[in-house]
Amino acid sequence: MTRHQTLRRALVEGRLFTAMAAHNPLSARLAEEAGFDGIWGSGFELSASHAVPDANILSMDTHLAMMRAIAAATGLPLIADIDTGFGNAVNVSYIVPQYEAAGASAVVMEDKTFPKDTSLRDGGRQELVRIEEFQGKVAAAVCARQDRDFVVIARTEALIAGQGQTEALRRAQAYEEAGADAILVHSKQKTPDEILSFIDAWRGAVPLVLVPTAYPQLTEADIAALGKVGIVIYGNHAIRAAVAGMRRVFAQIRREGGIRGVDAYLPAVADILALQGDAAMRDIEARFLR
């Protein structure tokens, strides 16, 4: 199967598909090594890795180039986070084929205004576009894809914006009608109650997508048992793990005035070389260098 077909089959068969966030090819390879089903090409993580806010500061070209690099580094399906689609339905029509050509197997697009504000910031500017406008963007994405197995996921931020369950359900149903293959519903409540209420009320035919960043007590077994969720995305754990690890190591080096203490628990250089694909390069050298 192609990577597109792998993701599509998981959705059709109702098997929970797990995706770990990545902000570069190395983090994507580590996610594949750990056994995740796919990669979440996170806009938040990419912004954080550039030390800029997750507010459409980075250009589409920057994001697209990283998605291409990630797709080339792993064999897993890549779900690209394209925020609000970098514009209106016309922009979406042009960019979806570019993400598909770059190796993505899906895009996720959210119904906020451009430029967006991150969903994770308290007191953020959470402004939603009209339902009809976003339906047009979803339909444009569906029409623009080259492979029918390429997945278009519509994300509603109605709960994030404080507009309630009724509005979230209304938007989700409208986006399904526009052709979305799945609906991502997002919440930043510290318990899963809000999400569970939405799932219970959902009567759509397409699966849901969850990002349980704010409510980590909801496990994969819990999510699978709900019967309506097709994908669970761990949206920012790669960058948080990287920051935690670097802070620990950097602080210890400064505290001890050297690297002797940290060397005992850091990966060996040989491990990094392996992740870089050094063995494959050596094989090429042996076969072709004259």
TrEMBL record:
One of its GO terms (molecular function) is catalytic activity. Coiled coil: none annotated. It comes from the Bacteria. It holds the Pfam family PEP_mutase. Belongs to the isocitrate lyase/PEP mutase superfamily. PEP mutase family. NCBIfam families: Pphn_pyruv_hyd (TIGR02321). This is Phosphoenolpyruvate phosphomutase. It comes from Paludibacterium paludis. The lineage of its organism: Bacteria, Pseudomonadati, Pseudomonadota, Betaproteobacteria, Neisseriales.
